[in-house]
Structures are given as C-alpha cells and as structure tokens.
Write a structure and sequence with these properties.
The complex is a heterodimer of chains A (579) and B (68).
Chain A (H helix, E strand, L loop, with lengths): L2 E6 L2 E8 L14 E6 L6 E4 L56 H6 L2 E3 L1 H5 L1 H15 L3 H8 L7 E6 L4 E9 L5 E12 L2 E12 L5 H18 L4 E6 L4 H7 L3 E2 L1 H26 L5 E2 L9 H29 L2 H12 L6 H16 L9 H7 E3 L15 E3 L12 H5 L16 H24 L6 H16 L2 H10 L6 E2 L2 H6 L10 H15 L5 H7 L3 H5 L4 E6 L3 H10 L5
Parallel strand pairs in A: 5-6, 9-10
Antiparallel strand pairs in A: 1-2, 2-3, 3-4, 6-7, 7-8, 8-9, 10-16, 11-16, 12-15, 13-14
Helix pairs in contact in A: 6-18, 7-17, 8-14, 9-13, 10-13
Chain B lengths: L13 E6 L2 E3 L1 H9 L3 H15 L3 H6 L7
Antiparallel strand pairs in B: 1-2
Classes of the chains: A alpha+beta (579), B alpha+beta (68).
C-alpha cells in the first residue's frame, strides 16, 4: 500500500492512493483516487482525483454532502505521485449530470418528457434519436429538463425531425400554482451526429406583468445547456417593438443578410434625424413637418392609416391565429379528426401499446394476453366532442369485446366443463380490469399528445384573414392621436407641408440653435458604424444615444457565437446577470 | 416550422406577449436592459467602434464614453 505524507495548503496529510473501488494500490500511477487524512489538530479527510484521471461518478454515487454517511469527492488538481495535492476549496466538486447509462425511450416518459409518437413507434427513427441523445447530449432526460428550464416548473415535449436532424423542444412554463405563464419552443440542430446550433423560435408570455425575469432565466439556462452539449451558436429573429434594439444589447450579431438590410434602414433613419434637425433650425428649406396629429389633413390621416394597416397586418393575423389557438378550437378539431379517422394502423395507438407492455413488464405485472393487432382491431374511439369546445376533455376509448376472441393461453375446451359454481371465462375477460386501466391511461395520453401535435399543424381557417381588416379598424379607432402621430413619426410617414409666407409673417418661428458640428458629428459617427462591414457595429449603434431611434421596430435575424468573447461578455452583461 | 437558416428574417416569435392585439415585448426587455451591466457592454461596444475606425472624440460624442 502506497502512502505518503504531503503538505496540502500548509496542512500535513497522510495520503493513500486508491483505485476506483477504494482499494489501496502500490503504484501511484494506477491511482484513481487519493485519500488525504489531515494529521493536524483539525483533522478531517478529503478525497482527491489525480489530474488527468477521470473519476467515474456513476460507479460511486455520492451521499449528499453533510449527510451522516456523506462524502464529498473533490476534483482538485495534483495528488499524483510527488504532485501537490490541493484541497477541495480550490475548485468545488462538480456534480456530474452525464447520463449514468444509455438513455432509453422509456426514460423520457418516466421523467415526464413527451416524445413524438413517430419517435416512439418508428424503431429506426427512435434509434437515431437515442443515438443523438446519448452521443450528443448525454444527460439524464429529467436533469436536462430541469437545467434547460433553469429550474422553472414546466412541461417538455421533444419532437425529433430526423430528416433535418433537429430536435424541437417545446412546452410550458408554470407558476407555483401550476398556471401556465409562458409557452416555448426551441430547436437543437445536429450536424454529423452532434449538436451544432440552436434556434430560439418561440417564447410567449401570457402576461406582460410577469416581466422579463422568467424569460431571462430561461434564456440563460438554455444557453448554458447549449454550451454544455457543445452547440456552437444560437439564433433569434427580432422584429417586435423593442426586440430589434434589445437583442443587439444582449450581444446578438446580425447575419450577413440582415446586416446588409439593416445598414440601409439605419442610414435612412440617420437621414431623417438630420433632416428633422435641419427643419427645426429653420435652415433646411421651405417645408415643415406638422407637430401633432390634428395639424395634418384628412388625406394624410387616411394615408397614414393605410400605411399602418399594411405594416401591422401580419401581426394582426398572428394575433388572430394565437387567439384561435388559445381558444382550443384547433385542438378540438384535431381530436375530432383523430377520433373519426382511427384505424388499427394508428401510430399513436401502437406506441401506447408498446409503452404499456414495457411498463407492465417493469412493474412485474402479468403480460397482456392479446397481440397488438388484436387490441388495435378491438379499440373503439368514440366521436369526440368536448364540453366547452376547447379540446381539453379526454377521448372516450374502449375495447370491442366481441373482437377479443383469441387470447394467448385461452383454451376453449377448458371452458366447456365448468366447475360447479364457477362461471366459464369468456375470451375477452382475459383482458383484466387492471390491463384495461393501464391501456386506457396510455391510449388517452397518446391520443392527447398526438392531437396536440396535429393541432399545432392545423391550417388556419379562412375567416381569420377576412376579420383582420375589421379588427385593424377597431384598433386604430381606439388609438389616441398621440399614438397615431408617434407611429407615423417613427415610421417616416409624417407629411411635409410648404411653409406659407403669410404664416411666417403672422408668427415668427421660434429661434432655434443652428446646427453645429457638435450635432452633426455624432450622427455622422453613427453613420460610419452603419457603413461598416462588421455587423458587430450594431452593438455600438445600440449603445449610442441614438440606439432606440435607430433600432426600435427593426427586423433582423441574429446569432450568438458561444466561442466569441465579446459576444458572451455582452450576453452575460444583461442575460447572464443574476439581478 | 420556419428556421433562421431557411428564411433571412423569419417572423419574430421569441419573447413577447400579446397586448391589445399586437405582439409586444417592451415590458419584457426593458427590465433586463435596465438591470444590465451597462458599462461592461459599453466597453465591448467601444472596442468595436474603435476597430471600425471611430476616434475617441466620436466615441464619446455618440454616448459610448465611460461613465463615472
């Protein structure tokens, strides 16, 4: 047994070299662990992992630190033969989240993560998905969910698109009472079998007052996970009112195509800022811009309304679609369709049967004595209609006992000579109540999941497009004049009217400070940024005093490159900040 | 499902709420920006602006100078 006295951070310690099974070894080179027993008055024991050795956590599950039997392994450097062992405080032990075994499909179900029915039912697809998970992500599904959501309570479903080699991760964030506060969808794209990039495709808060805290927690947790699994970048699309400005603050860099378009928009906005200054100074020509809504003519009111309607039409359509989805109508329709079209080759039902058989086997319950084909033939899905038309009710699924005629192990001959007082057993009675209960639960769940997936892909009804114009008119009428003027100003729709001489005679314009080089220099400096081929120039534009003027309501796609220090410095300055 | 690679600027659906009829995000982004480490972000912006060729005077003039 190899033991040495070492000085660890000024404290004497007797160190013992051990293999992974805690058996002392003679050769320090073979040591997977080093036990250090401090011999000073304070005493104590720490375990160290020699550098360049990887300790297999899965072989040595730890008790929680501080528990009576607990032991904290440390991951400090040194500890090898003749090396300088360092105590645990230098680097806290990292708790491994790597999957301890190969993740299987049922592990997702156990961790309440739904997989799409195709991935469950199609063995080839499932194998590819699990291969991606185990080789590319390699984290227990439950732990993945917890970390990916930043500890926020919520649900998670994974839809694997094998043709694109992409996982769509979606679900809901809930509050402490289980109420839904946000819906999310993220994509993780694989290349050559490993995570390559991610896309933040959807995050909708139910209420604004829930603030940015939830979104910030989620985004930070997502990025931590993307980095952990080796993805290189994250993309987003910005064009909601503040997003075009905010994502630049967070370090997103416009794609080349977006930067090209954005540069010209910023240039135009700089022109307008300078033009406005020129008019205000009285030195810019013979026109003026009205300074309030009421100072404009009817024709311009109508023209601005039309411009606004064109500009916001897609958002209104999105809103109507969201409302339609929130009403539950697509889910209702999807369930109705799924129930009406049920046939024995329904993948969702096949997947449910497979899951039930696996679960029963795991639980040590007797197997179901009917083949999948027999059960699928016997399944009856009643016509679906929920109480409130919102698709929330479960379907009514039952078995046609007349079709359950040939169970395994059923011997009709034995039924012909019943014992006195014992009723003969009918074939369908081989499907026990417990089996029926398990089947019903799994089938209902699979049906609901399939319907939700179908609902997401339901084509939008035609009436949505027809209602939008009316909605826009109502919305415009509800806007005050200040809001209308502000929109027109922000979008360059304010008219210019000729200055009439008599007006000038009647009322002399207020003297304005002439444009000075001090006014022009900053805007020209910002223009220089906008003309740069470096898309990171957007950060400086966003941080400049003209940031909001130039970037609010802009439309661009951006990327975060996790390996870029400047990018991550900005990201962490806002999203990574704990406050 | 649209992806950023498939279209140059797919519809923005990240981080919003529905206010009245329109998608809005100001009340979500504003608190994050307000609570951010402005100086660290500005330091990066200054370095970028300098690389692009802005002078120290221009950098200060557009509001990117260090704040006390």
């Amino acid at each position: 047994m190899m033991q040495q006295m070492l000085d660890i951070e000024g404290r004497p310690a007797l160190v013992t070299f051990m293999d992974e099974m805690f058996v002392p070894v003679d050769d320090p080179d073979e040591a997977a662990l080093v036990k250090a027993q401090f011999t000073d008055r304070a005493g104590g024991v720490v375990f160290l992992v020699p550098q360049a050795k990887e300790f297999d956590e899965s072989k040595h599950p730890r008790e929680p630190a501080g528990s009576p039997t607990g032991g904290q392994f440390t991951s400090g450097g040194g500890g090898g033969p003749g090396g300088e062992a360092k105590p645990a405080e230098e680097k806290p032990p990292s708790v491994s989240t790597k999957a301890k075994k190969k993740t299987e499909a049922k592990d997702f179900s156990e961790d309440k993560i739904e997989l799409d029915s195709g991935t469950i039912a199609n063995k080839e697809k499932q194998e590819k998905f699990l291969n991606r998970w185990n080789s590319g992500i390699d984290i227990d599904p439950g732990e993945f969910k917890k970390q990916f959501l930043g500890g926020l309570p919520g649900t998670m479903s994974i839809y694997y698109r094998d043709a694109e080699d992409t996982m769509d991760i979606s679900g809901r964030i809930e509050d402490a009472n289980g109420n839904v506060i946000a819906d999310y969808t993220r994509e993780i794209r694989f290349r050559q079998g490993v995570p390559d990039s991610a896309y933040s495709s959807y995050f909708k808060m139910k209420k604004a007052e829930q603030g940015g805290g939830v979104g910030k927690t989620m985004l930070k947790a997502n990025v931590d996970m993307y980095q952990k699994i080796g993805a290189k970048k994250l993309s987003v699309s910005a064009n909601i009112d503040v997003g075009g400005y905010a994502w630049a603050k967070y370090g997103y860099v416009p794609t080349p195509g977006s930067w090209s378009a954005l540069r010209s928009i910023i240039g135009e906005r700089i022109d307008k800022l300078q033009g406005r200054s020129a008019r205000a100074s009285g030195g810019g020509g013979d026109t003026y811009t009205p300074d309030e809504w009421a100072a404009m003519g009817e024709e311009d009111h109508e023209r601005i309304f039309r411009a606004w309607a064109n500009s916001t039409r897609s958002e209104f359509i999105d809103f109507e679609i969201e409302s339609w989805r929130d009403s539950g109508q697509p889910l209702e329709d999807a369930k109705n369709e799924l129930a009406g079209n049920y046939s024995p080759d329904a993948e969702w039902a096949q997947a449910a049967l497979e899951r039930v058989r696996e679960k029963r086997e795991d639980a040590g319950k007797p197997p179901i004595p009917f083949t999948d084909a027999q059960l699928l033939e016997a399944i009856t899905v009643e016509e679906y209609q929920s109480r409130y038309g919102d698709g929330r009710d479960d379907p009514d699924i039952s078995f046609d006992d007349d079709k359950l005629t040939a169970p395994t192990g059923y011997d009709p001959a034995q039924q012909t000579l019943p014992l006195p007082g014992v009723e003969p057993l009918e074939p369908h009675e081989m499907l026990t109540e417990d089996m029926r209960k398990d089947l019903d639960k799994a089938l209902v769940r699979a049906f609901n999941n399939e319907a939700e997936a179908k609902a997401a892909d339901m084509p939008t009804p035609d009436w949505i497009g027809q209602e939008v114009e009316e909605r826009q008119g109502e919305y415009w009428d509800s806007m005050d004049e200040g809001g209308r003027y502000e929109w027109a100003e922000r979008n360059g729709e304010l008219p210019e009217y000729p200055i009439e001489e008599e007006d000038e005679d009647d009322e002399a314009p207020e003297p304005q400070a002439p444009i000075t080089p001090a006014d022009e220099t900053p805007l020209e400096a910002v223009r220089k940024l906008a003309q740069s081929s470096d898309p990171k120039a957007l950060w400086a534009i966003a941080d400049s005093k003209y940031g909001k003027d130039l970037l609010l309501n802009t439309n661009w796609s951006g990327v975060i490159d996790f390996s870029d220090k400047q990018t991550m410095d900005r990201f962490n300055a806002y999203v990574g900040r704990k406050k | 499902m649209p992806t950023s690679d498939e279209k140059s600027n797919p519809p923005a659906r990240e981080f919003f709420y529905l206010g009245k009829s329109l998608k809005q995000d100001a009340e979500l982004h504003d608190p994050i920006i307000a609570a951010g480490d402005q100086e660290t972000a500005r330091k990066v912006a200054r370095a970028v602006a300098k690389d692009i060729g802005l002078t120290d005077e221009e950098i200060v003039a557009i509001g990117l100078g260090p704040k006390d």
